[in-house]
From TrEMBL:
Name of a matching Pfam family: Epimerase
Protein name stated in the entry: L-threonine 3-dehydrogenase, mitochondrial
Domain NAD-dependent epimerase/dehydratase: residue ranges: 71-306
Highest rank taxon of the organism: Eukaryota
EC numbers, comma separated: 1.1.1.103
Enzyme class: oxidoreductase
GO BP annotation list: L-threonine catabolic process
The species this protein was found in: Suricata suricatta
């Protein structure tokens, strides 16, 4: 799938030199705050493939006449989206949070609140949903994760990169507040791994990681260039009871609970000593809402590391043994996942999130294990 060439006005190619002059002119006119005003924006975005009329009001949301937060979640049927929808519905009301995906939802999800089909590769469909439902916030969860991404690079590139471009454009055009999750996978073997700070070398070696660095940079670019309210957290591996992981490197830390409860044993696809940052889903969802609600002036950056704990499969097994004395763990290493894990952070430095908007996790390893085992009915149902 290829992006269309940049057009100027309706369907006419804008000569490169003219476009550069226009951009340079706008840059010189930009205010000291570093954010760009909407008038030049409207003109510049009119040069995008989206064919917005040159005199359109760029921030169409500004005359929607409602302060109600109306939320769309893309890729919402994965490990994290349903939990996010439930969490946000408690805060903003059931009907104000629309879950979307390209898959068919199970009955209980379909009946728990608004659900809509949305393929992020279909820009017009995305725009129609945003306009018809007067969306104000967008949580962009669609992605192919690290291991499945390596198994299908063309699809990962399309969903994670072309899809992101669609989301960025629709968010910029309709003045949405946009949350895009990044990941520990946005770092690579040349990054400092213990701990990994917010700002350091990022040379990931997976298509997933490359697409997430691209998302961080594009989101920040749209923020500084067009004033898009882009907010991004780099999640560690997320551990949840209700939902299955979608094909990542940290999946073992979810599957271990399911197998421990069902069979009393687990075969781990990472080495026993592989240390990775992890977080319980309740902390992840709270961090996501907190950064979305943080006053803009408290955000010294637009992409933050967030963390809770860091452990190895062996540490996790030892903690499980305290609750299930007969539990057994064996190792059968998957070379692709192991290579990915060996290039990722071992500990994540999230001091900027803690300083800027007060991030504080609730769950360390002992609380995580107790909570996951106490959710054993939900763990069993998710199998
Ligand atoms: N689960 C984790 O441990 C972590 C997740 N994240 C990020 O959080 C977000 C959500 O993660 P998960 O729920 O775990 O992912 P997941 O892989 O479980 O779910 C992704 C969803 O995207 C959907 N999708 C795929 N192609 C699509 C398309 N063309 N249009 C619309 N939807 C499409 C899939 O159907 C799936 O339901 C992702 O962006 C991921 O990178 C970041 C770090 C850790
Ligand atoms: C940490 C992630 O981004 C994800 N769970 C994966 O392992 O790919």
């Amino acid at each position: 799938m290829r992006d269309l060439p940049i057009t100027y006005g309706v369907g006419r190619a804008m000569p490169g030199a003219k476009m550069l002059r226009q951009v340079a002119g706008q840059m010189l006119a930009s205010p000291a705050c570093g954010c760009w005003t909407s008038a030049p924006l409207a003109r510049f975005l009119a040069t995008s493939p989206r064919q917005i009329p040159a005199d359109a009001n760029f921030h169409s949301g500004s005359f929607s006449g409602s302060d109600q937060t109306r939320i769309l979640i893309t890729g919402g049927l994965g490990q994290l989206g349903v939990g996010l929808a439930n969490f946000l519905r408690k805060r903003f009301g059931k009907d104000n949070v629309i879950l979307s995906d390209i898959r068919k939802p199970p009955d209980h999800i379909f009946h728990s609140g608004p659900f809509i089909y949305s393929d992020i590769l279909d820009y017009k469909n995305l725009r129609e949903i945003v306009v018809n439902n007067r969306i104000t916030w967008l949580f962009h969860y669609s992605a192919l994760l690290s291991a499945v991404g390596e198994a299908n690079v063309p699809l990962a590139r399309a969903v994670n990169i072309t899809g992101l471009h669609n989301v960025l454009d629709v968010a910029a055009e309709h003045n949405l507040r946009l949350f895009v999750p990044s990941t520990i996978g946005a770092f690579g073997p040349t990054s400092p791994r213990n701990p990994t700070p917010d700002l350091c070398i990022q040379r990931p070696r997976t298509i997933y990681g490359v697409s997430k660095v691209h998302a961080e940079l594009m989101g920040e670019y749209y923020h500084y260039r067009y004033g898009l309210d882009f907010r991004c957290l780099r999640y560690p591996g997320i551990i949840s009871a209700d939902s299955q992981p979608g094909g990542g490197t940290t999946d073992y830390a979810v599957r271990i609970f399911h197998d421990a409860i069902k069979n009393g044993k687990f075969e781990c696809n990472l080495k026993s000593s592989t240390r990775l940052p992890m977080m319980y889903i309740d902390d992840c969802l709270r961090a996501t809402l907190e950064v979305m609600e943080a006053p803009a002036e408290s955000l010294s950056m637009r992409t933050y590391n967030v963390n809770a704990m860091s452990f190895t499969p062996e540490d996790l097994a030892q903690e499980l043994l305290k609750h299930i004395p007969e539990f057994q763990i064996t190792y059968n290493v998957d070379s692709v996942r192991q290579a990915i894990a060996d290039s990722w952070p071992m500990n994540f430095d999230d001091s900027n999130a803690r300083k800027d908007w007060g991030w504080k996790h609730d769950f360390d390893l002992p609380e995580l294990v107790t909570t996951m085992l106490n959710s054993d009915t939900r763990v069993a149902q998710a199998n």
